[in-house]
Amino acid sequence: MFILSLGLSNGIASASATSSHVSHCRINNPGVSAKVVSGVYQIHVDTYTPGTKFCFFVPSSSNGNYSSANPSISGVQNLDHAVAISYTQPTLVPLNSSDTPIATINSSKGLRTIQIFALPTNFPRFITFGEIEDLSNLNLLTTPVYNGIDYAIAIENGQIAFWTSGKYVVETLRQLNDFPQKLTAESYAYSYFTTSGPTGSYSPGTWHFLNAAFQEVGSLSTLNSSGEKLLPEGHDMTLSGASNPVVISYVPISVDSSWLDRPLSSQTVLDCRISEVQNGEAIHSFSFWDWAVRHKDPWKQLINNVNYPALTPLVQIIGSTQTAIDGFHCNSVQYLSSKDEFLVSMRGTSTVVVLSGDLTTVQNLITFPGAAQHFAKSNDGINFSMFGNYPFEKNSKFVSWTFNDLKHSPKYSDLPLLVGNCGNANQLSESNLWVGGGCGSLTNQATAFAVPKNVTIIGEYIRNFDTKPNISGILAVEGVGDYSYRTDIFTPATLLGP
């Protein structure tokens, strides 16, 4: 028989059940699942924070003289009818090791062996093809949905450095390293949302902030803006020059759109707000609808050209039966510290906007008809790029440009794949690109790899993307119908300088 947590059925008791009787069991266990397989107790840890210590109790018919030399096991105490095990979660866990024990505890009396697994049984299994065959070189932040469970996973040199999961929406895991790198207590952030909009186009919830060792150091679930309670949205966030969180919020508002050549199909709009937050208060905030009304000339043509309803659907407002048009859908925000500006991507209008650091003024804007892009970015505040989904064309595109006195000359590179929604691109060199994520498996137009049908592609290396693009490596997850909103190549924060 196995208990799980405080005497519920299933064989493992948490420390709080009997910790007063055992000197080293002082910290409750996180979630675990347990079963007996071929006479072996198998314990799978269902949560993970590197270095966390906890303990649990496994029943035994007598004092079994259990022991272990594994460094993850800091204490084994034999009791009359149980063994108390103190366990420290390792700093790194090998990929694809959900069926490989991280520690084994043996009995000198021939009783059942106890095995501890650092990953749950239902953990994503990664598969590679081509240039990514060696998993040990991977440094990735990814958010796959695997068998109906959302994960945020950080992979350093082919090993898992952090993961969390939930049965709702873990949308984004990103590094807070907007150029140039500014080390703060917050090195990473992930969004976890217990509610998702019916169309999936917006998902308010909570941002969790992690330090360089992936320990949680804070969170943000609500903000106050001039007396109005706003909810942060999960597509993206960044830090300001003062190291304050800068988040996206969607606010349903009633509007008069009669000034447009083609008035909106709904008089309720989801306004995109960009807010810098300090101690729960929005100290600076930008409303895209307010700006559009005050500056109708540049925005009128922009909104008139929006492809309704494909890119700006009617969505149900969370907590209400009312619908609103998602006309100002924002899906990325980056701080440009070299100029104290913010770069914002607006998918619905296929527009990229540069906002002043105090979130009062549009400094620049550029539109890419039909792009429906994700994740505009810049490494120097001068040269810009984005991943253009182009869902109504045959190819997604990588687009790069520079702003020059409000003029621009974009360079378009057709990619040998189509990602209709989501996804991100990291330019690795002048000619090599990484495309990761996508709400659904990446659709390849030409590849030399025989990728099985029962996997979901979540990332690809593309060589010579600007001349003759060639997919040279593929990262996939077992299972069909799952996906990863974004999968980014990154440099671990512990390796970054000041």
Features:
498 residues; five-stranded mixed β-sheet; mainly beta; 2 domains; 4% helix
Annotation, overall tally of beta strands? 43
CATH class placement of the largest domain:
Mainly Beta
Which range does the strand content fall in?
A: over 45%
Q: Strand order within the widest sheet?
A: 1-2-5-8-7
Radius of gyration: 25 Å
| Class by SSE composition | mainly beta
Count of individual domains: 2
Count of individual helical segments: 3
In the CATH scheme, what's the topology name of the largest domain?
Neuraminidase
Q: Any idea what the CATH superfamily of the largest domain is called?
A: TolB, C-terminal domain
Write the layout of secondary structure elements.
Elements: E1 3-4, E2 11-14, H1 15-18, E3 32-37, E4 40-45, E5 53-59, E6 66-67, E7 73-78, E8 82-88, E9 93-94, E10 103-107, E11 114-117, E12 126-130, E13 140-146, E14 149-156, E15 159-166, E16 169-175, E17 188-193, E18 206-210, E19 216-220, E20 223-225, E21 228-230, E22 237-239, E23 245-254, E24 268-278, E25 281-287, H2 288-294, H3 296-304, E26 314-316, E27 323-325, E28 330-336, E29 341-346, E30 351-356, E31 362-367, E32 374-378, E33 383-388, E34 397-404, E35 407-408, E36 411-414, E37 417-418, E38 424-427, E39 433-436, E40 443-444, E41 455-463, E42 470-478, E43 483-489
Parallel strand pairs: 1-2, 4-11
Antiparallel strand pairs: 2-5, 3-4, 5-8, 6-10, 7-8, 9-15, 10-11, 12-42, 13-14, 13-43, 14-15, 16-17, 17-18, 18-19, 20-21, 22-23, 23-24, 24-25, 26-27, 28-29, 29-30, 30-31, 32-33, 33-34, 34-35, 34-36, 37-40, 38-39, 39-41, 41-42
Helix pairs in contact: 2-3
